[in-house]
Amino acid sequence: MEIVLIKSQAKKVIFVMKEALTVTEKMLEDLQALAEKQDSATRTQLLMAQAECDQLRSQLQVSEVQVVSKTKGKNKSNNCVDLNNKC
Q1: pTM (2 d.p.)
Q2: Contact of 83 with 70, CB cutoff 8 Å
Q3: Which domain of life is it from (predicted)?
Q4: Which SS3 state, helix, strand or coil, does residue 83 take?
């Protein structure tokens, strides 16, 4: 009788362990999916930031060209650099 009791308890423990493993595996799948989504969102934010940086870089280059073209040939003592030709 004692062996049957131990065997039945072992079966219960094994059942509970299998259930715990199933729940843990499901949690792992969910966490992996969440991590992929977050990684995707992070990549999207990075791409948006890179695009914004590229746009600002382009604007800066255009502005630098305008400043150089507006100041060429002007008196070096003239500190006024107006891109709208108001100096």
Answers
A1: 0.45
A2: yes
A3: Eukaryota
A4: coil
Cα–Cα dist 25/87, whole Å: 71
d(CA 80, CA 24): 69
| CA–CA distance, 72 with 60 (Å, rounded to integer) | 18
Nearest C-alpha neighbor of 67 from the set 82, 45, 50: 82
Sequence-separated (6 or more) residues with CB below 8 Å from residue 9:
none
Which three-class secondary structure state does DSSP give residue 80? coil
pLDDT digits (tens, 9 = 90+) for 24-78: 999 989 988 888 888 888 888 888 998 998 888 888 887 777 766 665 655 555 5
